[in-house]
Amino acid sequence: MAPGPLAQVLRQIPKVEDKNLLTADIPFADAGVYRISPNCALVQSIDFFTPIVNDPNIYGRIAAANALSDIYAMGGRPITALNLIGFPKCLGQEILVAVLTGGAEKVHEAGAVIVGGHTVDDDEPKYGLSVTGLVDPARLITTAGARPGDRLLLTKPLGTGILATALKGGVLTEADMREAIDGMMTLNRVASETMQTIGVHACTDITGFGLLGHALELARASRVGIVLQGEQLPVYPQVFEMAAIGLIPEGGYNNRSHYLSGVFNRDDLKATVLDILTDPQTSGGLLISVAADKEEALTQALGTGGCRAWSIGRVTADHPEKIRIE
Ligand code: CO
């Protein structure tokens, strides 16, 4: 759902009171965190979507990497997953086998195990997973800990929504968007484990609300301002070209109308920067808020683990709960 209507709906649902629900005060937390003993909490998340590529095995792998990502964003370790499947009767079984095989491969790579699932007949395919992880509550990483002076690192380029729109429109092939497909299939595991080793203040993963939406949720939860370097945002190949010919997904417009009011200097934004900022991501990278004196160590450790990281902005005490684009 678009962020506006979703927030409207959620406001009308009675709030749960439970002292063990550790994410109760964090709106749009990446995952729900529930303490089951003093040093152990469950981290639970769910995500599913219609195919964003044509190859069913790759679709399965992207969907699983995407579903696992919320656990990683919170510093959790995934342990179990349940498959969720909507599948048309007219499609061959071998397609579903390929999707589920792809999903299982990624869950296995994450060191977790698929313990079951549920299928329904559906007019269009849908696939995703409900994932459960574990975290020590003392080591939980949320969107609420960013501090003025922090640097912001992003661990994957942007633009998967624009590229997927181009693929659907027949303007690009899967081969043209190889780098983005590899990126979407990549687990945020190395990024997560590395940030836990170095020690960071806050984190979220970039998915449907785009960099702008997720950065703004982080700014609100931490009650800080954020400055993003608009010209330094990393994007996958062909993203600017596709955006220039208008291949913007509907979700990008939804994000724009909901989150643009949170941008301090929204009137002088370049159109290309706005397209990238609001592009909904599938299986995007982690946005990490780290103390300035640890930025270099984190970037280096990520690189050693084979994970790229881009320094894309900083946290400020100015304009709290708003974003400024430089
Ligand atoms: Co998330």
Topology-level CATH name of the largest domain = Phosphoribosyl-aminoimidazole Synthetase, Chain A, domain 2
Task: Classify the helix fraction into a percent range.
Answer: 25-40%
Bound molecule kinds, no repeats:
cobalt (II) ion
CATH superfamily of the largest domain: PurM-like C-terminal domain
Oligomeric organization of the protein chains: single chain
The SSE string, one letter per element, is HEEHEHEEEHHHEHEHHHEHEE
Low-confidence stretches at least 5 residues in length (pLDDT < 50)? Answer: none
CATH architecture of the largest domain: Alpha-Beta Complex
- Number of strand elements: 11
- What's the number of domains? 2
Strand arrangement, major sheet = 7-9-6-10-8-11
Describe this structure in words.
This protein has eleven helices and eleven strands. It is α+β, with helices and mostly antiparallel strands and 326 residues long. It folds into two domains: 31-139, 60s Ribosomal Protein L30, Chain: A (2-Layer Sandwich), CATH 3.30.1330; 151-325, Phosphoribosyl-aminoimidazole Synthetase, Chain A, domain 2 (Alpha-Beta Complex), CATH 3.90.650.10. The longest helix has 18 residues, at 56-73. The model has no long low-confidence stretch (mean pLDDT 96). The structure holds cobalt (II) ion. Cobalt (II) ion (CO) binds at residues 30, 70, 73, 204-205, 207.
